[in-house]
Protein backbone atom coordinates (compact mmCIF):
# COMPACT_ATOMS: atom_id res chain seq x y z
CA UNK A 1 0.00 0.00 0.00
CA UNK A 2 1.44 3.44 -0.83
CA UNK A 3 2.44 5.53 2.17
CA UNK A 4 -0.07 8.33 1.59
CA UNK A 5 -2.95 5.86 1.49
CA UNK A 6 -1.66 4.13 4.63
CA UNK A 7 -1.32 7.53 6.37
CA UNK A 8 -4.90 8.40 5.41
CA UNK A 9 -6.11 5.08 6.81
CA UNK A 10 -4.23 5.69 10.05
CA UNK A 11 -5.63 9.20 10.39
CA UNK A 12 -9.17 8.00 9.74
CA UNK A 13 -9.03 5.03 12.11
CA UNK A 14 -10.15 6.76 15.37
CA UNK A 15 -13.22 8.32 13.79
CA UNK A 16 -14.09 5.17 11.82
CA UNK A 17 -13.82 3.14 15.01
CA UNK A 18 -16.13 5.63 16.77
CA UNK A 19 -18.68 5.48 13.92
CA UNK A 20 -18.53 1.68 13.91
CA UNK A 21 -19.11 1.47 17.68
CA UNK A 22 -22.17 3.75 17.38
CA UNK A 23 -23.52 1.66 14.50
CA UNK A 24 -22.96 -1.57 16.42
CA UNK A 25 -24.94 -0.25 19.40
CA UNK A 26 -27.72 0.87 17.06
CA UNK A 27 -27.68 -2.56 15.38
CA UNK A 28 -27.87 -4.29 18.76
CA UNK A 29 -30.76 -2.11 19.95
CA UNK A 30 -32.54 -2.32 16.58
CA UNK A 31 -31.96 -6.08 16.38
CA UNK A 32 -33.51 -6.68 19.81
CA UNK A 33 -36.46 -4.39 19.06
CA UNK A 34 -37.30 -5.59 15.53
CA UNK A 35 -36.36 -9.21 16.33
CA UNK A 36 -38.88 -9.24 19.21
CA UNK A 37 -41.51 -7.50 17.05
CA UNK A 38 -41.09 -9.97 14.18
CA UNK A 39 -41.02 -12.92 16.57
CA UNK A 40 -44.30 -11.70 18.09
CA UNK A 41 -45.77 -11.31 14.53
CA UNK A 42 -44.67 -14.85 13.69
CA UNK A 43 -42.09 -13.76 11.07
CA UNK A 44 -39.59 -16.25 12.50
CA UNK A 45 -36.89 -16.27 9.74
CA UNK A 46 -36.55 -12.46 9.90
CA UNK A 47 -36.65 -12.52 13.72
CA UNK A 48 -33.91 -15.18 13.88
CA UNK A 49 -31.75 -13.23 11.37
CA UNK A 50 -32.16 -10.10 13.49
CA UNK A 51 -31.26 -11.91 16.72
CA UNK A 52 -28.21 -13.45 15.03
CA UNK A 53 -27.15 -9.99 13.81
CA UNK A 54 -27.56 -8.70 17.39
CA UNK A 55 -25.30 -11.40 18.82
CA UNK A 56 -22.73 -10.92 16.06
CA UNK A 57 -22.71 -7.14 16.63
CA UNK A 58 -22.13 -7.73 20.36
CA UNK A 59 -19.09 -9.86 19.49
CA UNK A 60 -17.80 -7.20 17.01
CA UNK A 61 -18.21 -4.52 19.68
CA UNK A 62 -15.74 -6.44 21.81
CA UNK A 63 -13.40 -7.29 18.86
CA UNK A 64 -13.00 -3.78 17.39
CA UNK A 65 -11.96 -2.13 20.65
CA UNK A 66 -8.19 -2.56 20.21
CA UNK A 67 -7.79 -4.22 16.82
CA UNK A 68 -5.14 -3.04 14.34
CA UNK A 69 -7.13 -4.62 11.50
CA UNK A 70 -10.04 -2.22 11.73
CA UNK A 71 -10.78 -2.20 7.98
CA UNK A 72 -11.29 -5.98 7.99
CA UNK A 73 -13.64 -5.83 10.98
CA UNK A 74 -15.58 -3.04 9.30
CA UNK A 75 -16.06 -5.27 6.25
CA UNK A 76 -16.94 -8.16 8.57
CA UNK A 77 -19.75 -5.96 9.91
CA UNK A 78 -20.85 -4.10 6.82
CA UNK A 79 -21.03 -6.94 4.29
CA UNK A 80 -23.27 -9.29 6.37
CA UNK A 81 -25.31 -6.25 7.44
CA UNK A 82 -25.89 -5.21 3.82
CA UNK A 83 -26.56 -8.77 2.68
CA UNK A 84 -29.13 -9.11 5.51
CA UNK A 85 -30.64 -5.81 4.36
CA UNK A 86 -30.95 -7.13 0.78
CA UNK A 87 -32.58 -10.35 2.07
CA UNK A 88 -35.01 -8.27 4.16
CA UNK A 89 -35.89 -6.19 1.06
CA UNK A 90 -36.59 -9.37 -0.87
CA UNK A 91 -38.84 -11.01 1.79
CA UNK A 92 -42.55 -10.77 0.89
CA UNK A 93 -43.48 -9.63 4.43
CA UNK A 94 -41.25 -6.52 4.15
CA UNK A 95 -43.17 -3.27 3.50
CA UNK A 96 -42.17 -0.80 0.75
CA UNK A 97 -40.92 1.64 3.41
CA UNK A 98 -38.08 -0.79 4.25
CA UNK A 99 -36.41 0.51 1.09
CA UNK A 100 -35.83 3.80 2.99
CA UNK A 101 -32.94 2.02 4.76
CA UNK A 102 -31.10 1.78 1.43
CA UNK A 103 -30.44 5.52 1.59
CA UNK A 104 -28.21 4.86 4.62
CA UNK A 105 -25.80 2.77 2.52
CA UNK A 106 -23.72 5.61 0.97
CA UNK A 107 -23.47 7.52 4.27
CA UNK A 108 -22.45 4.52 6.34
CA UNK A 109 -20.09 2.97 3.80
CA UNK A 110 -18.27 6.27 3.10
CA UNK A 111 -17.94 7.06 6.81
CA UNK A 112 -16.63 3.58 7.56
CA UNK A 113 -14.51 2.82 4.51
CA UNK A 114 -13.50 6.11 2.91
CA UNK A 115 -14.17 7.36 -0.57
CA UNK A 116 -12.92 4.51 -2.77
CA UNK A 117 -14.29 1.42 -1.06
CA UNK A 118 -17.25 3.44 0.24
CA UNK A 119 -18.23 4.39 -3.31
CA UNK A 120 -17.79 0.84 -4.61
CA UNK A 121 -19.91 -0.70 -1.84
CA UNK A 122 -22.57 2.01 -2.24
CA UNK A 123 -22.87 1.46 -5.99
CA UNK A 124 -22.97 -2.33 -5.75
CA UNK A 125 -25.58 -2.58 -2.97
CA UNK A 126 -27.74 0.31 -4.18
CA UNK A 127 -27.84 -1.29 -7.62
CA UNK A 128 -28.91 -4.63 -6.06
CA UNK A 129 -31.56 -2.82 -3.99
CA UNK A 130 -32.85 -1.06 -7.15
CA UNK A 131 -33.17 -4.39 -8.97
CA UNK A 132 -35.03 -5.92 -5.98
CA UNK A 133 -37.31 -2.87 -5.85
CA UNK A 134 -38.15 -3.14 -9.58
CA UNK A 135 -38.75 -6.89 -9.40
CA UNK A 136 -41.00 -6.59 -6.37
CA UNK A 137 -42.99 -3.52 -7.42
CA UNK A 138 -43.22 -3.60 -11.19
CA UNK A 139 -46.98 -4.26 -10.91
CA UNK A 140 -47.60 -1.20 -8.71
CA UNK A 141 -48.45 1.76 -11.04
CA UNK A 142 -48.01 4.34 -8.25
CA UNK A 143 -44.45 3.20 -7.44
CA UNK A 144 -43.58 2.70 -11.12
CA UNK A 145 -44.63 6.25 -11.97
CA UNK A 146 -41.76 8.08 -13.68
CA UNK A 147 -41.85 10.89 -11.07
CA UNK A 148 -41.57 8.45 -8.14
CA UNK A 149 -38.67 6.67 -9.80
CA UNK A 150 -36.95 9.94 -10.73
CA UNK A 151 -37.32 11.13 -7.11
CA UNK A 152 -35.67 7.98 -5.75
CA UNK A 153 -32.87 8.02 -8.33
CA UNK A 154 -32.04 11.71 -7.78
CA UNK A 155 -32.16 11.30 -3.99
CA UNK A 156 -29.80 8.31 -4.21
CA UNK A 157 -27.38 10.16 -6.49
CA UNK A 158 -27.41 13.18 -4.14
CA UNK A 159 -26.61 11.02 -1.12
CA UNK A 160 -23.77 9.24 -2.92
CA UNK A 161 -22.37 12.55 -4.20
CA UNK A 162 -22.59 14.29 -0.79
CA UNK A 163 -20.99 11.36 1.04
CA UNK A 164 -18.22 11.14 -1.54
CA UNK A 165 -17.54 14.90 -1.58
CA UNK A 166 -17.48 14.94 2.24
CA UNK A 167 -14.90 12.14 2.34
CA UNK A 168 -12.71 13.84 -0.29
CA UNK A 169 -12.65 17.13 1.60
CA UNK A 170 -12.08 15.37 4.96
CA UNK A 171 -9.10 13.45 3.54
CA UNK A 172 -7.70 16.63 1.99
CA UNK A 173 -7.97 18.63 5.23
CA UNK A 174 -6.39 15.84 7.26
CA UNK A 175 -3.48 15.59 4.82
CA UNK A 176 -2.97 19.37 4.89
CA UNK A 177 -2.96 19.38 8.71
CA UNK A 178 -0.54 16.47 8.74
CA UNK A 179 1.70 18.22 6.23
CA UNK A 180 1.70 21.40 8.33
CA UNK A 181 2.51 19.44 11.49
CA UNK A 182 5.58 17.96 9.77
CA UNK A 183 6.86 21.11 8.05
CA UNK A 184 9.08 23.91 9.31
CA UNK A 185 7.24 27.18 8.74
CA UNK A 186 10.32 29.34 8.01
CA UNK A 187 12.30 27.19 5.57
CA UNK A 188 9.57 24.93 4.21
CA UNK A 189 11.77 21.91 5.06
CA UNK A 190 10.55 18.97 7.11
CA UNK A 191 10.69 19.59 10.86
CA UNK A 192 11.79 17.10 13.54
CA UNK A 193 8.48 15.20 13.29
CA UNK A 194 8.85 15.00 9.50
CA UNK A 195 12.42 13.73 9.83
CA UNK A 196 11.29 11.10 12.35
CA UNK A 197 8.60 9.74 10.02
CA UNK A 198 10.99 9.74 7.03
CA UNK A 199 13.78 8.09 9.03
CA UNK A 200 11.56 5.26 10.27
CA UNK A 201 10.33 4.55 6.75
CA UNK A 202 13.88 4.53 5.34
CA UNK A 203 15.18 2.51 8.29
CA UNK A 204 12.70 -0.27 7.43
CA UNK A 205 13.73 -0.14 3.78
CA UNK A 206 17.44 -0.13 4.67
CA UNK A 207 17.04 -3.22 6.87
CA UNK A 208 14.90 -5.00 4.27
CA UNK A 209 17.27 -4.27 1.37
CA UNK A 210 20.49 -4.42 3.41
CA UNK A 211 21.40 -0.85 2.43
CA UNK A 212 23.35 1.67 4.52
CA UNK A 213 21.63 4.76 5.95
CA UNK A 214 23.38 7.84 7.31
CA UNK A 215 22.36 10.82 9.42
CA UNK A 216 23.92 14.29 9.58
CA UNK A 217 23.33 16.79 12.36
CA UNK A 218 24.28 20.27 11.14
CA UNK A 219 24.56 23.47 13.18
CA UNK A 220 25.31 26.99 11.95
CA UNK A 221 28.30 28.48 13.76
CA UNK A 222 28.08 31.61 15.90
CA UNK A 223 24.58 32.23 14.66
CA UNK A 224 23.81 34.44 17.63
CA UNK A 225 26.31 36.92 16.20
CA UNK A 226 24.42 37.01 12.88
CA UNK A 227 21.24 37.95 14.74
CA UNK A 228 23.03 40.43 16.98
CA UNK A 229 24.89 42.11 14.11
CA UNK A 230 22.24 42.09 11.34
CA UNK A 231 18.95 41.62 13.16
CA UNK A 232 16.55 38.72 13.55
CA UNK A 233 15.01 39.16 10.11
CA UNK A 234 18.42 38.85 8.43
CA UNK A 235 19.00 35.79 10.66
CA UNK A 236 15.81 34.27 9.26
CA UNK A 237 16.97 34.97 5.72
CA UNK A 238 20.32 33.34 6.53
CA UNK A 239 18.54 30.20 7.75
CA UNK A 240 16.49 30.01 4.52
CA UNK A 241 19.61 30.71 2.44
CA UNK A 242 21.62 27.92 4.12
CA UNK A 243 18.65 25.53 3.77
CA UNK A 244 18.41 26.25 0.03
CA UNK A 245 22.14 25.78 -0.53
CA UNK A 246 22.10 22.44 1.26
CA UNK A 247 18.90 21.26 -0.37
CA UNK A 248 20.40 21.88 -3.82
CA UNK A 249 23.30 19.56 -3.07
CA UNK A 250 21.28 16.66 -1.72
CA UNK A 251 19.61 14.00 -3.85
CA UNK A 252 15.85 14.11 -4.16
CA UNK A 253 15.70 10.80 -2.28
CA UNK A 254 17.45 12.32 0.79
CA UNK A 255 15.71 14.45 3.38
CA UNK A 256 16.89 17.74 4.84
CA UNK A 257 15.02 18.90 7.94
CA UNK A 258 15.24 21.83 10.33
CA UNK A 259 15.45 20.31 13.79
CA UNK A 260 14.97 23.65 15.53
CA UNK A 261 16.76 27.01 15.91
CA UNK A 262 19.87 26.97 13.73
CA UNK A 263 20.16 23.17 13.76
CA UNK A 264 19.41 20.95 10.72
CA UNK A 265 19.36 17.20 10.17
CA UNK A 266 19.81 15.23 6.95
CA UNK A 267 18.90 11.59 6.31
CA UNK A 268 20.99 10.18 3.46
CA UNK A 269 19.55 7.00 2.01
CA UNK A 270 21.76 4.20 0.72
CA UNK A 271 24.83 6.05 2.04
CA UNK A 272 27.70 4.84 4.20
CA UNK A 273 29.37 6.98 6.82
CA UNK A 274 32.33 7.54 4.46
CA UNK A 275 30.16 8.86 1.63
CA UNK A 276 28.01 10.83 4.09
CA UNK A 277 31.17 12.55 5.32
CA UNK A 278 31.98 13.59 1.73
CA UNK A 279 28.44 14.88 1.26
CA UNK A 280 28.63 16.76 4.59
CA UNK A 281 31.90 18.28 3.45
CA UNK A 282 30.25 19.46 0.23
CA UNK A 283 27.40 21.01 2.20
CA UNK A 284 29.83 22.74 4.52
CA UNK A 285 31.86 24.17 1.61
CA UNK A 286 28.71 25.23 -0.27
CA UNK A 287 27.35 27.19 2.69
CA UNK A 288 30.75 28.71 3.49
CA UNK A 289 31.06 29.87 -0.15
CA UNK A 290 27.43 31.04 -0.41
CA UNK A 291 27.10 34.76 -0.83
CA UNK A 292 24.41 36.26 1.32
CA UNK A 293 24.26 40.05 1.39
CA UNK A 294 22.23 42.11 3.84
CA UNK A 295 22.06 45.88 3.25
CA UNK A 296 25.27 45.72 1.18
CA UNK A 297 27.07 43.79 3.90
CA UNK A 298 28.06 40.14 3.35
CA UNK A 299 26.88 37.67 5.97
CA UNK A 300 29.46 34.92 6.42
CA UNK A 301 28.03 31.54 7.40
CA UNK A 302 29.84 28.38 8.40
CA UNK A 303 28.56 25.08 9.76
CA UNK A 304 29.71 22.25 12.00
CA UNK A 305 28.46 18.77 11.16
CA UNK A 306 28.33 15.42 12.97
CA UNK A 307 27.90 12.20 10.95
CA UNK A 308 26.48 8.84 12.07
CA UNK A 309 25.52 5.61 10.29
CA UNK A 310 22.72 3.17 11.06
CA UNK A 311 24.01 -0.11 12.44
CA UNK A 312 27.48 1.34 13.07
CA UNK A 313 26.69 4.11 15.55
CA UNK A 314 23.30 2.83 16.75
CA UNK A 315 20.24 0.97 15.59
CA UNK A 316 17.60 3.64 16.12
CA UNK A 317 17.06 7.34 15.45
CA UNK A 318 17.69 8.40 19.04
CA UNK A 319 21.08 6.63 19.11
CA UNK A 320 22.11 8.13 15.75
CA UNK A 321 21.04 11.62 16.80
CA UNK A 322 23.10 11.29 20.01
CA UNK A 323 26.15 10.00 18.12
CA UNK A 324 25.93 12.72 15.45
CA UNK A 325 25.22 15.37 18.11
CA UNK A 326 28.23 14.29 20.13
CA UNK A 327 30.44 14.62 17.00
CA UNK A 328 28.86 17.97 16.14
CA UNK A 329 29.77 19.37 19.57
CA UNK A 330 33.24 17.94 19.19
CA UNK A 331 33.48 19.88 15.91
CA UNK A 332 32.41 23.01 17.79
CA UNK A 333 35.04 22.39 20.46
CA UNK A 334 37.72 21.92 17.81
CA UNK A 335 37.06 25.35 16.33
CA UNK A 336 33.83 24.91 14.25
CA UNK A 337 33.45 24.93 10.44
CA UNK A 338 34.24 21.20 10.14
CA UNK A 339 32.79 17.72 9.74
CA UNK A 340 33.35 14.94 12.27
CA UNK A 341 32.43 11.36 11.62
CA UNK A 342 33.51 7.84 12.51
CA UNK A 343 37.25 7.02 12.66
CA UNK A 344 37.59 5.55 9.16
CA UNK A 345 36.52 8.70 7.31
CA UNK A 346 38.16 11.02 4.80
CA UNK A 347 41.14 13.34 5.01
CA UNK A 348 39.35 16.58 5.80
CA UNK A 349 37.67 15.22 8.91
CA UNK A 350 38.94 14.72 12.40
CA UNK A 351 38.34 11.19 13.65
CA UNK A 352 36.42 11.03 16.92
CA UNK A 353 38.97 8.81 18.60
CA UNK A 354 41.77 11.31 17.82
CA UNK A 355 39.89 14.41 18.73
CA UNK A 356 38.16 13.18 21.89
CA UNK A 357 41.09 13.76 24.30
CA UNK A 358 41.04 17.50 23.57
CA UNK A 359 37.67 17.96 25.21
CA UNK A 360 38.42 16.04 28.43
N1 LIG B 1 16.78 34.62 13.19
C1 LIG B 1 16.55 33.50 13.86
N2 LIG B 1 17.37 33.15 14.85
C2 LIG B 1 17.13 32.02 15.52
C3 LIG B 1 16.05 31.20 15.20
N3 LIG B 1 16.07 30.13 16.04
C4 LIG B 1 17.14 30.29 16.85
N4 LIG B 1 17.79 31.43 16.54
C5 LIG B 1 18.97 32.02 17.17
O1 LIG B 1 20.10 31.19 16.99
C6 LIG B 1 21.04 31.56 18.00
C7 LIG B 1 21.71 30.34 18.53
O2 LIG B 1 22.68 30.74 19.42
P1 LIG B 1 23.60 29.74 20.19
O3 LIG B 1 22.81 28.56 20.64
O4 LIG B 1 24.31 30.51 21.25
O5 LIG B 1 24.59 29.20 19.14
P2 LIG B 1 25.58 29.94 18.16
O6 LIG B 1 25.61 31.41 18.39
O7 LIG B 1 25.25 29.50 16.79
O8 LIG B 1 26.95 29.34 18.61
P3 LIG B 1 27.51 27.90 18.29
O9 LIG B 1 26.37 27.02 17.98
O10 LIG B 1 28.20 27.50 19.55
O11 LIG B 1 28.45 28.05 17.16
C8 LIG B 1 20.27 32.33 19.08
O12 LIG B 1 20.64 33.67 19.03
C9 LIG B 1 18.82 32.17 18.67
O13 LIG B 1 18.04 33.31 18.98
C10 LIG B 1 15.18 31.61 14.16
O14 LIG B 1 14.20 30.96 13.80
N5 LIG B 1 15.47 32.77 13.51
UniProtKB/TrEMBL annotation:
Its EC number is 2.7.7.65. It is an enzyme of class 2 (transferase). The keyword Transmembrane applies. One of its GO terms (molecular function) is diguanylate cyclase activity. Signal peptide: none annotated. SUPFAM superfamilies: Nucleotide cyclase (SSF55073). The chain crosses the membrane at residues 18-37, 43-62, 74-90, 118-136, 148-166. InterPro entries: Diguanylate_Cyclase, GGDEF_dom, MASE6, Nucleotide_cyclase, Rev_trsase/Diguanyl_cyclase. Its cofactor is Mg(2+). SMART domains: GGDEF (SM00267). It comes from the Bacteria. One of its GO terms (biological process) is cell adhesion involved in single-species biofilm formation. One of its GO terms (cellular component) is plasma membrane. Residues 211-344 form the GGDEF domain. It catalyses: 2 GTP = 3',3'-c-di-GMP + 2 diphosphate. Gene3D superfamilies: 3.30.70.270. NCBIfam families: GGDEF (TIGR00254). This is diguanylate cyclase. The lineage of its organism: Bacteria, Pseudomonadati, Pseudomonadota, Gammaproteobacteria, Cellvibrionales.
